Amino acid sequence: MKLRSVMAKLRGKGRDQVPTGLEASVIPDLPTVIRPNEGPMVVPDTEAAEVIARNLQGAANDLERLYYSHRGHLAFKWHHYLKVYDRYLGRYRNRPLRLLEIGVMDGGSLEIWRKYFGQEAVIFGIDISERCAAFDGHGGAVRIGDQSDTTFLEKTVLEMGGVDVVIDDGSHIASHQRASFRTLFPMLSPDGIYICEDVHTAYWEGWEGGLQRPGTFIERAKGIVDQMHGWYAPVPTSPADLDFLRSVQSVSFFDSMVIIEKGQKERPYAVAVR
Ligand SMILES: C[S@@+](CC[C@H](N)C(=O)[O-])C[C@H]1O[C@@H](n2cnc3c(N)ncnc32)[C@H](O)[C@@H]1O
Predict the structure, then answer these.
(1) Pocket of ligand 1, candidates 7, 128, 197: which has the most ligand atoms within 8 Å of its Cβ, to mutate?
(2) Structural domain that includes position 146
(3) Number of helices (H) and strands (E), helices first, in the chain?
(4) What CATH number is given to the structural domain containing 219?
(5) Which residues line ligand 1 (CB under 6 A)?
């Protein structure tokens, strides 16, 4: 069952009434080399209760526990993201973390982040849809604007007092993802983390994607891997790129997620010991 119809059912609405923000999450009908039953799926609502109960019982970490015991506004995450989030973000719990999530939708995600990170965290969500203003103050602050609008992003981060973690779960359109990254990565604290979700859209034409199509977030991230190795290889590097490569600690790829860790790097050196 496709996400659009699942969400429509959850909301008790017809397929055509699903908010446009969800368009970016619909799994299109594509020719696939994956065998039936091995492709990605959204659990149909008829089976959701059973899966939620099973995942709660077998929760591998606090985030899974909080997600599957959540009662409140609707949140919508791929199951395997929870383990990755816990691994990368666990160190920020109960600390004055500043987190910005792009894409609020129904507000449930902000509520879960609040439970996970605690009261010291500064949690902001941004969304292009005016309807999300209703979730302001539910787990975090909500600001309405476009993720590709540099001025809006800068103003939001200024209001937050800086940013340590960015989660891009917005439109999932390549040019938007690139625009947010271009503005927000330099604004991240020196050891901050940038997470881009649902990058499977990098393979979908309707999201400016396609296999190895220049400009997708996947290709951008692969390019960063080359830039990171600019010390060793003739990667075309401008002075601005040099600063950038010195601020990237790691690039990690998970199914549908790219995580870029910031961190000031010194010139690599090796030393023999005996
Ligand atoms: C996948 S949903 C977010 C889900 C939410 N983070 C969660 O985990 O439950 C995507 C959201 O991005 C918003 N969105 C779409 N285009 C956007 C844009 N250009 N700027 C900001 N938000 C956008 C949509 O309105 C929608 O609410």
Answers:
(1) 128
(2) 75-262
(3) 9, 7
(4) 3.40.50.150
(5) 21, 24-25, 75-77, 101-105, 108-109, 126-129, 146-148, 169-171, 176
**Order of strands across the sheet with 163-168?**
141-144, 122-127, 98-102, 163-168, 188-197, 257-262, 248-254
Q: How many domains does the chain have?
A: 1
Q: pLDDT tens digit string along 140-186?
A: 999 999 999 999 999 999 999 999 999 999 999 999 999 999 999 99
Contact call for residues 251 and 220 (beta carbons, < 8 A): no
State both tokens at 166: 């960015």
Which of the 8 DSSP states describes residue 135? G
Question: The whole model's pTM is what?
Answer: 0.89
200 noted as active-site residue: no
Integer Rg of the chain from CA: 19
* CB distance 147 to 170 below 8 Å: yes
